[in-house]
Amino acid sequence: MEKIISPEERIKRAEEIYYRRKINNNNVRMPSSQVKQERENRQFSLYKKMILQILICIFIYLIFSLIKETNYIFSESVINKTKEFLSIDINFAQISSNIGDFFQNNQDKFSFLTKLWNKEENINSENQNNENEEINNIENNITNEQANSENNNENEEINGENTNLQNSESSQNSQLENNEEKATISNENVGIGGSSKIEQTVQVSATETSSKKTQMEIDAEYIKKNFSMVLPAKAKITSPYGKREPTEIVSENHQGIDIGVVVGTTIVSAMEGTVSVVSNVGDYGTHVKIVNKDVTTIYAHCSKILVKEGEKVKKGQKIALSGNTGNTTGPHLHFEIRREERTVDPELILSWT
After folding, report:
1. How is the chain split into domains, by residue range?
2. CB 323 within 8 A of CB 331
């Protein structure tokens, strides 16, 4: 943990640094005017200290004298004289005017003392500011050195990681080139007719690319390429596609998405097609299915269906009103997309942002 330094310790350290530098720089001579000014400042500070010490001594002497002469101070004669003095009517206005005249007549003397006092305060404040600036500069230098060392370490680590990545990439590229050369040589030896080396390489790379994709991603790309779709309802998705925490009502594997809409919201067809099912049986409640070739869209938990089985609908046509029918925890629209009975995440095809 960093140690907290008090202002007195900071000033003491600054003074030590200042005098150390002054000793190390003995060869540098100061101007005579500056030396004279510093000498005068020291003399004035000594006079000031001497005056304060005299005043303190007088004050201590008065206290001891009061303690010693307590019997005389609190005697009847002193008390009577004090009462007589207090009974005198004092003209404070006259006294204040006399004091004002006295200060006005001796204004030159008091102005000289005021200038000396202000000069001493300015000198002390300048010295304090210089010491604080020097300490701050030293602390900043230490902080900058630490930051530079940390940055250098980070840069070295980053450079090392980049070198490792470049080495691994170069090794992977060389391995791929060797594999392609081996495949080309083997194809030449076998003697495959009607296919060039370039076509074979393209086929191999296409097969590798397709093998890395999941079946759902392939289905999503197929639907986006061959069908035009719109959002069935413009609202926030309250439950996405995939696995979720099951309950008595909520299933573990969610085969579609839930769109948070209130009861009576208009639902439109996401694509053109033919109405294959209109039903209110099962966990889906009142629902409708629309089919176009090998792609099916399902709209579940509706309150009312506006189309009939066998009817052809267009993309964006009103087909139902949202509701809270079937196995639900609240009003919403359950929307599914399927290709040959394989479910596809609608967020891979449509954007709700």
Report:
1. 7-149, 224-348
2. yes
Q: For the chain, how big is the Rg over CA atoms in Å?
A: 48
In terms of CATH, what superfamily is 224-348? Glucose Permease (Domain IIA) (2.70.70.10)
Q: What is the pTM of this model?
A: 0.43
142-197 pLDDT tens trace:
666 666 666 666 666 556 555 555 555 555 555 555 555 544 444 444 444 444 44
Whole-angstrom distance, CA of residue 348 vs CA of residue 350? 6
Decide: 338 and 344 in contact? Cβ < 8 Å.
yes
Collapsing DSSP to helix, strand or coil, 127 comes out as helix
Q: Say how many Å lie between the first and final Cα of the chain, rounded.
A: 47
Whether 332 and 260 have beta carbons less than 8 Å apart is answered as yes
What phi, psi does 255 have (nearest 5°)?
A: -85, 0
For residue 12, which phi and psi values (nearest 5 degrees)?
A: -65, -40
Length of the chain: 353
3-state secondary structure 214-280: CHHHHHHHHHHHHCCCCCCCCCCEEECCEECCCCCCCCCEECCEEECCCCCCEEECCCCEEEEEEEC
